[in-house]
């Protein structure tokens, strides 16, 4: 049988970078801005022409506060763009893996969300991703929606890098302590996708690192791991001035992933590995006057 061709959208993003490090390069077709634009008329045709067996659709509008300011753009990318990707996957008889988010939930629960729980997003980003899930499943028969959360990795902006940078600049950081979720290392999610791609699983599957944390506890752990003297102070969400409302609780249950593989490592273990990687790559780059992390 010929080798499986896997097309990755958002190939330069956090998850895209992680997937490129775990999948054989000769199997990959990489798509991202500016040549590949989910809002361009050519998007569907570009995928069809590549004739992939599997599409991992990781590209998205991921600026949560930005989506409140430009909801039309967020929907064009996350909903209409996803519909185009799904139509293309269907046309070539391919499998679609759509990456979605814990922000589809409202946080009214206080026990982990299962794949069967109803969605009720609180912000524009979450609504666009929820509608993206529906578009993916509507247009492609062999579709798996993989919901993950609080993602960090190489090749993109994330909370860990923000806190590492702020810890080098400020003596005190204030971080919300009443929002709980599952920090997830993109490398670990990519390894789970290696198992999910050839599986027959369709529908929805939750994939995060194990355990849960508040943003405060996450930030405090980052600061300790990098040996910074910065003090992290817990604050309530009412003191955080952000345009987008975040769910107070969005822990995703280890559910259907159990049909395919063991749970991912604990989030503290994953964070330890990521911060070590960042620090060792920083120490091998010749100094340019940047603050060491
Ligand atoms: N980050 C997180 O915390 C979480 C992310 N997710 C989901 O996981 C997936 C991967 O996330 P992550 O890797 O962090 O995302 P990133 O933002 O790191 O990467 C997304 C990629 O998509 C590209 N992109 C943006 N707009 C378009 C467009 N119009 N056409 C083509 N490409 C575009 C971005 O390009 P550019 O950088 O130039 O804009 C970027 O390279 C996304 O679907 C996201 O919704 C789910 C849960 C948590
Ligand atoms: C940096 C920082 C954030 N915060 C708060 C703001 C917010 O409530 C929370 C997280 O902030 P961020 O803006 O970094 O993260 P946010 O954009 O909310 O992250 C989300 O991104 C999208 C793409 C997802 O899909 C989600 O799973 C989730 O990872 O932490 C502080 O209280 N203090 C701080 O210094
Ligand atoms: Mg980019």
From TrEMBL:
<comment type="pathway">
    <text>Carbohydrate biosynthesis; dTDP-L-rhamnose biosynthesis.</text>
</comment>
<dbReference type="GO" id="GO:0019305">
    <property type="term" value="P:dTDP-rhamnose biosynthetic process"/>
</dbReference>
<keyword id="KW-0560">Oxidoreductase</keyword>
<dbReference type="Pfam" id="PF04321">
    <property type="entry name" value="RmlD_sub_bind"/>
</dbReference>
<dbReference type="GO" id="GO:0005829">
    <property type="term" value="C:cytosol"/>
</dbReference>
<dbReference type="InterPro" id="IPR005913">
    <property type="entry name" value="dTDP_dehydrorham_reduct"/>
</dbReference>
<dbReference type="InterPro" id="IPR029903">
    <property type="entry name" value="RmlD-like-bd"/>
</dbReference>
<dbReference type="GO" id="GO:0008831">
    <property type="term" value="F:dTDP-4-dehydrorhamnose reductase activity"/>
</dbReference>
<keyword id="KW-0521">NADP</keyword>
<comment type="function">
    <text>Catalyzes the reduction of dTDP-6-deoxy-L-lyxo-4-hexulose to yield dTDP-L-rhamnose.</text>
</comment>
<dbReference type="InterPro" id="IPR036291">
    <property type="entry name" value="NAD(P)-bd_dom_sf"/>
</dbReference>
<comment type="similarity">
    <text>Belongs to the dTDP-4-dehydrorhamnose reductase family.</text>
</comment>
<protein>
    <recommendedName>
        <fullName>dTDP-4-dehydrorhamnose reductase</fullName>
        <ecNumber>1.1.1.133</ecNumber>
    </recommendedName>
</protein>
<feature type="domain" description="RmlD-like substrate binding">
    <location>
        <begin position="5"/>
        <end position="278"/>
    </location>
</feature>
